[in-house]
């Protein structure tokens, strides 16, 4: 077990690990933690709500609409935090299960574990200390997280969690970087993204070095988990606990939100662009593309019918009725 | 052989045309163009652009990394993206 001669098979991974070791994680010391958030300014510049076309949305006051948008953003940050939390435990499993005939996989994954831990803790602090709002993770995400924890192949865990779920989540939160004028959150996301860039390189390396036989062996399970992860990502856009605060019926919310995702080009992205991530990892799959084109929407809608949102956590100030929203945030 | 700056720019502009067909009509198609103000880049386009650049240059191009490295997102220009691709190709990021 203990082999002092064990070395790195890949100079690239050894360098990447060196980069990770030298990367300074200074976010908890950011002086901006001591400055109040300018909530009103943040609310005024958010991405339009997925419910912008639902009957009744325009009847809300501008303040209420901004509140919806602001809380949708916080809902997504909560989901990101849940994903980082899962990432810690998945990384631990990957370290246990990956090949140990060289240092590459286990040692780099140990840095992934540390990164995910940092991300989770800083997002948790932001959401509790600064935003004051905590949601339970979207139930569709919770379900795929459970499945990934039970998955036996470390390669499938890596691909579904890092390349499908995290790559997409981090790419999507870049819009918060673009639009959010709140400098602390921008700094947090920039630090997270910097780490994720290393993770992506590592994942690419893992899949570039799998044998063709192993690729063929994993293909059906990869397709299945990639599809399920995609369902979960899209379903997690539906901020039902936020929308219910305004008495919008969940069923109508799902349909209007899905329509809005189509109009924004998001569904095209998930059916045509995201599967190319698999191809980059040598898993070309016509079956997956067919599944995404024919089954994705139904499964996304079903996911929310099968898995009713569990609402919000209870140990800190929560999202309340629309007329009290905003008042509970300590600016 | 590694492509030079001009070749990278040509490819990046071509991919931007594909990802962002609704470009600002007043913007020049050049290194100075802004990704946000001229190409209307949003998060979905960031993800798509990352993937297409990776496929084209066969190197990891994680654009959120670039967007996280600037103080003001409006500083993100085509030229900055070209330089980011170049630094990924040389392994200097």
Helical content of chain B (DSSP H or I, runs of 4+) = 40-55%
Which architecture of chain A would the CATH scheme give at its second level?
Answer: Up-down Bundle
Quick one: CATH superfamily of chain B? ACP-like
**Name of the CATH architecture of chain B:** Orthogonal Bundle
Q: How many helices of chain B in DSSP terms?
A: 4
Overall geometry of chain B: globular
What is the arithmetic mean of pLDDT of chain B? 87
Helix content of chain A: 55-70%
What is the CATH topology assignment of chain A? Ferritin
Distance between the termini of chain B: 19 Å
The number of E-state strands of chain A comes to 0
Instruction: Give a count of the beta strands of chain B, DSSP E runs of length 2 or more.
Output: 0
Radius of gyration of chain A: 20 Å
Report the mean per-residue pLDDT of chain A as an integer.
Answer: 85
Major sheet characteristics of chain B: none
CATH class of chain B: Mainly Alpha
Shape, principal axes of CA atoms of chain A: globular
Report strand % of chain A.
under 5%
Biggest protein-protein contact in the assembly: A-B, 30 and 22 residues
What's the order of the H and E elements of chain B? HHHH
Secondary structure: elements and pairs:
The complex is a heterodimer of chains A (331) and B (93).
Chain A: H1 11-22, H2 39-43, H3 62-97, H4 104-131, H5 139-150, H6 154-179, H7 183-208, H8 212-235, H9 240-244, H10 250-263, H11 266-273, H12 275-280, H13 286-306
Chain B: H1 5-19, H2 43-57, H3 63-67, H4 78-90
What does this structure look like?
The complex is a heterodimer of chains A (331) and B (93). With 331 residues, chain A is mostly helical. Chain A has one domain: Ferritin (Up-down Bundle), CATH 1.20.1260. Chain A is built from 13 helices and no strands. Chain B is mainly α. Chain B has a single domain (5-90), classed as ACP-like (Non-ribosomal Peptide Synthetase Peptidyl Carrier Protein, Chain A). In chain B, helix 1 crosses helix 2 (43-57) and helix 1 (5-19) packs across helix 4 (78-90). The mean pLDDT of chain B is 87. The A-B interface holds A 47, 167-168, 170-175, 177-178, 189-191, 193-194, 196-197, 200-201, 204, 264-266, 269, 273-274, 276-277, 280 and B 36, 41-44, 46-48, 50-51, 54-55, 60, 62-65, 67-69, 73, 93.
């Amino acid at each position: 077990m203990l082999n002092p001669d064990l070395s790195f098979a890949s100079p690239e991974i050894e360098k990447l690990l060196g980069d990770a070791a030298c990367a300074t994680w200074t976010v908890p010391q950011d002086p901006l933690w001591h400055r109040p958030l300018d909530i009103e300014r943040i609310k005024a510049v958010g991405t339009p709500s997925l419910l912008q076309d639902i009957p009744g949305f325009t009847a809300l006051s501008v303040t209420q609409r901004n509140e919806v948008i602001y809380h949708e953003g916080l809902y997504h940050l909560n989901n990101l935090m849940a994903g980082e939390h899962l990432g810690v435990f998945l990384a631990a499993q990957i370290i246990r299960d990956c090949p140990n005939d060289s240092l590459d996989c286990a040692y780099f994954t140990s840095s992934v574990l540390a990164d995910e831990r940092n991300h989770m803790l800083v997002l948790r602090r932001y959401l509790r200390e600064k935003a004051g709002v905590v949601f339970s993770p979207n139930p569709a995400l919770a379900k795929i997280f459970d499945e990934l924890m039970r998955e036996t192949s470390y390669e499938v865990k890596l691909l579904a969690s890092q390349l499908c779920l995290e790559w997409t989540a981090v790419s999507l939160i870049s819009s918060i970087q673009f639009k959010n004028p709140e400098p602390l959150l921008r700094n947090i996301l920039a630090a997270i993204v910097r780490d994720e860039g290393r993770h992506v390189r590592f994942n690419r390396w893992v899949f570039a070095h799998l044998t063709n036989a192993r690729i063929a062996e994993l293909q059906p399970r990869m397709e299945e988990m990639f599809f399920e992860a995609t369902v979960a990502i899209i379903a997690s856009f539906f901020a039902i606990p936020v929308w219910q605060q305004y008495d919008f019926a969940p069923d109508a919310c799902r349909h209007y939100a899905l329509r809005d995702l189509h109009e924004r080009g998001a569904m095209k992205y998930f059916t045509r662009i995201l599967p190319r991530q698999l191809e980059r990892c040598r898993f070309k799959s016509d079956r997956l593309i067919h599944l995404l084109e024919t089954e994705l929407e139904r499964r996304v809608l079903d996911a929310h019918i099968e898995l009713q949102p569990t609402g919000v956590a209870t140990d800190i100030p929560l999202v309340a009725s629309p007329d009290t929203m905003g008042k509970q945030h300590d600016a | 052989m590694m492509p030079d700056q001009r070749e990278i720019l040509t490819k990046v502009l071509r991919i931007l045309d594909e990802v962002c067909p609704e470009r600002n009509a007043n913007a020049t198609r050049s290194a100075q163009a802004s990704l946000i103000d001229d190409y209307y880049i949003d998060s979905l386009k960031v993800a798509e652009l990352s993937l297409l650049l990776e496929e084209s240059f066969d190197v990891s191009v994680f654009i959120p990394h670039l967007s996280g490295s600037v103080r003001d997102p409006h500083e993100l220009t085509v030229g900055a993206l070209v330089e980011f691709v170049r630094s990924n190709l040389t392994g200097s990021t």
